[in-house]
Design goal:
By secondary structure, this protein is mainly alpha-helical. About 70% of the residues lie in helices and about 0% in strands. The chain has two domains: about 190 residues, no CATH class; about 70 residues, no CATH class.
């Protein structure tokens, strides 16, 4: 399973799957409890918002320390998306049905008693609005390995999700501001953009140092040995993921830049480091490529 990164948590796939499902269930239960406990009280929305931020922060830390990076990002996004779906299934639609049934029954109904369904439905709908951009970010994150392979990936995940919620607040409040019913929304957008800019700065790649003059040159035989042990499983005779085959000299020559990028720059491969490539072996590939990727 792509959930497991043995360098972080060496557990059985079935255990990893069970824990991942637990993330979805526990977040929904705690979020729903917070909404029911504080949602209709004074400053309830602010209290629930702070609690949700805390839950997402904790979940981001746990997921990124327990699971493979790319799986952790998707898992936190799926966790929030599950809450969005549950809001619709358990609160928004049932409440709406009760109100419509009472109003179309032809019998006298208590408008005050029915109002609570509208309040709860609106609250959950608003929450879903703020969840939208964080979930979209999580969905797209797997295309950008520099995010989920970063040393502080959980911080990047949380900050980007928080920035998404702030930017969403800007769009929510903008219309009301033009009508004179809401405060200026631009501070939310500004803070969101600043957070994204901070993430971009944090992700700036460090320059790749040229190999020391006294270091012995890395031969293709050394690189080939690394490829045999770490890469042939998915890029050999029996399997060629993405059409990349590295058990032939011509394939290595064609994909030399890709090997360098994936193994030493983005460090995305091997996937979840399933074949346990070492740091020294990554450096061999880097030195070989920088020296001209010569194939003896």
């Amino acid at each position: 399973t792509y959930l497991v990164d043995k360098s972080r948590m060496d557990w059985a796939p079935s255990t990893a799957i069970a824990v991942a499902l637990g993330f979805l269930a526990v977040f929904w239960l705690l979020y729903d409890l917070a909404c029911r406990t504080f949602g209709q009280k004074k400053n309830g929305d602010a209290i629930v918002g702070v609690l949700v931020l805390g839950l997402v922060c904790v979940a981001s830390w746990l997921a990124c320390h327990w699971f493979a990076g790319r799986a952790a990002f998707l898992l936190v996004g799926a966790m929030i998306a599950t809450a969005m779906s549950a809001n619709v299934f358990f609160w928004i639609i049932p409440g709406q049905r009760k109100v419509v049934a009472a109003m179309t029954s032809g019998e006298k109904y208590d408008a005050a008693a029915l109002a609570i369904h509208g309040k709860r439905g609106k609250q959950r709908s608003v929450h879903n609005t703020y969840f939208t951009l964080p979930v979209i970010f999580a969905m797209l994150s797997n295309h950008y390995s520099f995010l989920y392979t970063h040393e502080h990936r959980w911080v990047l995940l949380f900050v980007m999700m928080f920035a998404g919620a702030l930017i969403r607040q800007f769009f929510v409040q903008r219309h009301g501001f033009h009508l004179g019913r809401a405060k200026n929304p631009w501070p939310f957008a500004a803070v969101g953009v600043v957070l994204i800019a901070a993430v971009i700065v944090a992700l700036k790649p460090a320059p790749v140092a040229a190999p020391a003059a006294q270091a012995a040159p890395v031969t293709f035989a050394q690189v080939k040995q690394v490829l045999e042990q770490r890469c042939y499983m998915c890029h050999g005779e029996t399997a060629q993921m993405k059409g990349v085959r590295l058990d032939q000299v011509e394939g290595v020559r064609t994909h030399a830049q890709g090997i360098f990028q994936q193994a030493t720059v983005t460090r995305q491969m091997p996937l979840n480091n399933a074949t346990q490539i070492t740091e020294e072996e990554r450096q061999w590939i880097a030195r070989w490529y920088i020296a001209g990727a010569k194939i003896d």
